[in-house]
Every structure is written in structure tokens, then in C-alpha cells.
Amino acid sequence: METLELLKALILGLVEGATEFLPVSSTGHQIIVADFLNFTGERAKTFEIFIQLGAIIAVIWYYRERIAHVLRTLGSERASQRMITNLLIAFMPAAVIGLAFNKAIKAHLFNPITVSIALIVGGFIIMLIEARKTQPTVNNTDDITPRTALLIGVAQCFALVPGTSRSGSTIMGSLLCGLSRPAAAEFSFFLSIPTMIAATLYSLYKARDVLSVADVPMFSVGFIAAFFSGFFVVKLFLAYISKHSFVAFAWYRIVLGVAVLAYFWFSGDSLTAVMAD
């Protein structure tokens, strides 16, 4: 295993963990960074899928006490039953649509140009949502209704377009449904657990022929990096949004999207190749 390949795995793992739970699109960042690192091909795509598990385990570990309580009291507490029910309801729309259109999405939309456009459009949408002068009506995830959970699940479907951001879609959808910023972020984190575990395991199963024992060091480095950066970012993100809006993330998306579009625009051959993909 070459040192350079391990370094690429480390960088991509850090990027995955740092962006998975922010409204900036981890998939978009992975596509862009992997393109810059010349880390492409089926093996690279499988690696990018696998390291998502590291980020997911980070959020499970962060909420380990809350998750353990829900599971322990599932048969006796209404709040725990409501949480599981809402997560299942919110999970279903993206699961159904993702299974139906997964192949077409990966064939036509997984490229830096699509990601850039989605980043920019998503940034303006975040600004529009944040510009509203409404007060939240739901300040705790325990108060989410099944109808609201379904609407958040529908919002998550937009994240099937690379660059849109799963967390961005669910958090913005939650805000539109009346959730406070902390409650929206927390429900987004909980929803990421079944959504990403299912999507990751399904994708790994389909790519099982690409995996080999020789890839263990590279996959391990990426997994561990994603775990630690994910845990660190979740903690900082929750502290940040308790006092600030998501406008800074909107501007980040727009600036990054424009920068990447400019990069591919001025390198004509690369732009043609990316659009052809």
C-alpha cells in the first residue's frame, strides 16, 4: 500500500466526517476532492461509500446515551415509540425513490459540475428559508408529529442529487415545518443513522466484487479519520447553531460552487470530460 494512497484516504476521510452532518454536501465534497486528488474509479467510489460508516458511528457514539434510552424504553415509553415511528416514516420516501433511481442518478449526476450547481442553488434556498421571520413551534424532537416526519422525509429526497446535502435538505425541511434549529439538526442526525446505514450497506453489497483484502489499510485509515472528524464537527455544529443561523453555510456553498465551476470552465478539456460523464 503506497504512502500517497494512504494520505489520500486520510484526506478523504477527514473531508467525509467534517461535511457529512453540515448542510454543505459531503458527497459533493467527496466528488470534488477526489477529482482534485485523481482518486477515481470503481474502487475509489466504494471507498467513499465505506467511510460514511465511520461518520455514522461517530454520531451514534455522540448520542449513545439517548439512543440506548430509546431502545431500552421502546416497549414502555410513548416518546421512544414516537421517535422510532417518526424515523421510519421519514426514512421511507428517500429509500423508495433512491432504490428506483439510484442507477440513473449515479450514471448522470455524480460529477463536479452537477455538484457545483446544486451547491449554489442550495445556498440561495438556505438564505431564503433563513430570511423568514417565523418563530419555531417545535423545540424538541419528541414533539414531532408523524405528518411532520413525513414532510421531512420528502425533503430528504432532494439530497439524492449530489451537492444538495442530505443534512441540508432535512434541516431546511425541518425549519419549514416549524422546528427550531437545534431540534432540526438533532432530528437530521438521528435520521441519518437508518438512512446512511441502509444506503451504505446496500451500495457496499452491490460493489462487493471490487473489494479485496489489500484495501483494508486504506479503508481503515479513511474510516478512522471520518469517525474522529465527524464526532468533532457534530459537537461544534450543535454549539454553533444554538446561537447562529445557517447563513454562513449558505455563503460557503455559493462561494465553493462558483469556484469549482470557474475551475472547470477555465480548464476546457476537463469541463468537456466532466459533462460527458
TrEMBL record:
Family, as annotated: Belongs to the UppP family.
Record keywords, A-Z: Antibiotic resistance, Cell membrane, Cell shape, Cell wall biogenesis/degradation, Hydrolase, Membrane, Peptidoglycan synthesis, Transmembrane, Transmembrane helix
Further remarks about this protein from its record: Bacitracin is thought to be involved in the inhibition of peptidoglycan synthesis by sequestering undecaprenyl diphosphate, thereby reducing the pool of lipid carrier available.
GO cellular component, one term: plasma membrane
Location relative to the cell: Cell membrane
EC number, as in UniProt: 3.6.1.27
Presence of the UniProt keyword Transmembrane in the record: yes
GO MF, one example: undecaprenyl-diphosphatase activity
Membrane topology field: Multi-pass membrane protein
Record function comment: Catalyzes the dephosphorylation of undecaprenyl diphosphate (UPP). Confers resistance to bacitracin.
Annotated protein name in UniProt: Undecaprenyl-diphosphatase
Lineage: Bacteria, Pseudomonadati, Pseudomonadota, Gammaproteobacteria, Candidatus Competibacteraceae
Top-rank taxon: Bacteria
Single biological process term from Gene Ontology: response to antibiotic
Residues spanning the membrane: 46-63, 83-102, 109-129, 144-162, 183-205, 217-238, 245-266
Known catalytic reactions: di-trans,octa-cis-undecaprenyl diphosphate + H2O = di-trans,octa-cis-undecaprenyl phosphate + phosphate + H(+)
Primary location: membrane
Pfam families, per database record: BacA (PF02673)
